[in-house]
Amino acid sequence: MSLPKVYHRFSLLSLHSPKTLFFSSSLPLAVKRLPSPPLLRAHSRRFVTGKQFKAKSAMASSRFHLVVPVNALAIEDGGNGSGSNGAANATASVAYDDDLESASETGYRLPPREIRDIVDAPPLPALSFSPLRDKILFLKRRSLPPLSDLARPEEKLAGVRIDGKCNTRSRMSFYTGIGIHHLMEDGSLGPEKEIQGLPEGARINFLTWSNNGQHLAFTVRLDEDDGSSSKLRVWVANVDTGKARPLFESPDIYVNAVFDNFVWVNDSTLLVCTIPLSRGDPPRKPLVPSGPKIQSNEQKNVIQSRTYQDLLKDEYDEDLFEYYATTQLVLASLDGEIKPFGPPAIYTSMDPSPDQAYILLTSTHRPFSFVVPCGRFPKKVEVWKANGEFVRELCDLPLAENIPIAFNSVRKGMRSINWRADKPSNLYWVETQDGGDAKVEVSPRDIIYTQSAAPHENEHPKILHKLDLRYGGISWCDDTLALVYESWYKTRKVRTWVISPGSENVNPRILFDRSSEDVYSDPGSPMSRRTPAGTYVIAKVKKEDDGDTYLLLNGSGATPEGNIPFLDLFDINTGSKERIWQSNREKYFETVVALMSDQKEGELSINKLKILTSKESKTENTQYYLLSWPEKKACQITNFPHPYPQLESLQKEMIRYQRKDGVQLTATLYLPPGYDPSRDGPLPCLVWSYPGEFKSKDAASQVRGSPNEFAGIGPTSPLLWLARRFAVLSGPTIPIIGEGDEEANDRYIEQLVASAEAAVEEVIRRGVADPNKIAVGGHSYGAFMTANLLAHAPHLFCCGIARSGAYNRTLTPFGFQNEERTLWEATNTYVEMSPFMSANKIKKPILLIHGEEDNNPGTLTMQSDRFFNALKGHGALCRLVILPYESHGYGARESIMHVLWETDRWLQKHCAYSSDVKADLNACKDNAEGTVDSQSKAVGAAGGVQELANLDDDKFHSIRRSLL
């Protein structure tokens, strides 16, 4: 259930692959749909009309003098309460007022202005460098999408969600425009040239460069009158002129982007996945089923699967999946020539060989499955010539329903089939020797094979290397050098082997043998250079004074003081290292992003080395620099504004403290701008975290991250409450350790509580957190953590916020998170870890939030429904918010703003100004009359202290100190 760490910053693209990925502003890449809003499933089903909202706001204004007037809100938000991010067409009702007791009303709400302004800040562009590193694209993005995008109909089939109207994956983010900048000799950027000729409102996806950097290819879709999007068409743009045009003259050729989309075969030809022209209407669901739904295991096979969602349910689903996923490949040249390529099939990937002579095609086919997603369906891999001539079938793997749930278990047969990056058209792949079952002891466990694309009649696959752990990838260089990686989760062991692919007489040797958890011993990863064929191989660097050849190791540089990234010259023969660059450890956090002097073949001269670096600090957002040798002069190439200047002077500190069993813990403590503990006293505090599993106390005690990293704030980040004058303890380490033969989860509750106690004691000791006003929260596995802490450590926290969690582990009986034992193998662990089983112990207020369409394995929306009912059945103070159309991460502006409103209301009511505090405020109200103006007296008398936070900081603290 892991959720990636999210930052409100731009992404860097096309640095190591000719295929460019696309990213939303700060969310999982997905977003879209809309009917009239069913809104939030809380306690009431009534909708808030415009008149009701005005009437309610008028009443609120009569009670609280500081409530924002409705007409003022309309003016500030473009007249419809939708904010300034372009979501003005959203039809969901949106309301905002500061009355903490108005939560029984339905409708989407807006959080306070200070939070809204940060979330609505315009997103920074994504960057993409040209293959020759002479141009940079600024890919422009919109802010949060409206709920109408998510409300579009989607088909949930075989573990994927499909927008049938577009014939793509549903909820795709997109770019709104493309700007081209030349990278000048002095490192500065030339003036922007906009891509011209695109239709108004174009939604751009899947942008890729041609290998020579002269053209861009991308898809374009448009909004239609009914609120849906059109199907995707491929466009190409000339980078020099900036002019764009459709690739196909025919308006009837559309992209099928359910799996792959298109790829450059050479500089003037693309292979495109298209919707077959002969395809008719979608299959219709029969009114009367042909028979019952039957699944059988009469062969007594052992089939254990995690809790997957969106699986096929019946024959109709199978037909529908095949309908949308079937593709006709088409070869299309820039001069307009088109040619069908192969038969229609469900192609899941297509990969040209480095010499552009062959295409590696992967497809899936029947029989499908009702118990596993499409990634385990039968898979066929074939080699074709680039002109459309079939060469051979590499494999046709059967349905894989019975892959064991133990970590490091894999599919039987050929896997990880790829082209060697250092050869014109040589393939390599891996085959397991343990039947794919990680519990089977065998040596070797994996064997790597290699063979030419079109072998001679008697040419057999050649064994490249044998591994006793599980294969983890290869970094190619040439016939004298390749690095092979293997790992084993159970022991956390990782190894790097040095092999000579073209020399059978040279024995492989281990280069690095370490624990994946030991970040202090991480030597870094070899940097790659781009070949003329567009592939990436290990870069070799030569020093002119000694003539030796070195690799460049780019490392994160974990230390007890935090990460200090580095770049080393590494002699692979002797193991000696020379540090040629290191991040500034005092104020900045700098990283090496990419090698920029990689356009030529052969060894790179150290004196002509050029790299792209990023640089940031606690208060300065990321900028990018070109660093050139031998002077090591850095030229800044971006100058992005601070995304939220109102928090520019926030205070950030990486703190260390100790758990009672001796484990060293770390966390990042954030304090609001201008906060002075001696003057302002302890603050309400929000603790937000996510547990992690370890095999040793030493590894769990290591410091990860940097104190100098920029405080990136995503749309649902806990750091938003810095703007509400909260202290935020972000990411306190919650290590769950299982040393030796012990499993980590056997002592989950004990270690969870001990870690939380240590964190709370530390912020109290520092005087920054009021011990009676500490809230805890988390998303996904962090929500699971939150519920358990409220059940088993109620003395630590005043309330909790749990988003998109799983609370009953008996509903995920074949493993969860990093637990690989089944419910029947570890019954007590499953039961004791489940906060659902301890619902009767939860006495502190808990807010549950969940997406109604959560597709993450294990975190079914039902988990929150049933947990809420269990809590309610024991009289707990709880609230459940179900977000229509949202998945595991939340995408629509209305949803996100409402989540922030709910969270802020919960924190204000049950943390910052809990009922006990309100009683104290009312008791001292009369004493405060002599020093507090009439507005603050009205606020204090009504108990609506949240309105104070809408004042400027000085007045806020003046009134607050008077009341307290």
Structural description of this entry:
With 964 residues, the protein is of the alpha+beta class. Among the domains are: 519-642, no CATH class; 651-911, Rossmann fold (3-Layer(aba) Sandwich), CATH 3.40.50. The protein has 15 helices and 51 strands. The strands form twelve sheets. Strands 42-43-46-44-48-49-50-51 form an eight-stranded mixed beta sheet, with helices on both faces. A hairpin with a 4-residue loop joins strand 40 and strand 41 (633-636). Helix 7 packs across helix 8. The longest helix has 20 residues, at 893-912. The two termini are 42 Å apart. Residues 1-98 and 916-964 have low confidence and may be disordered.
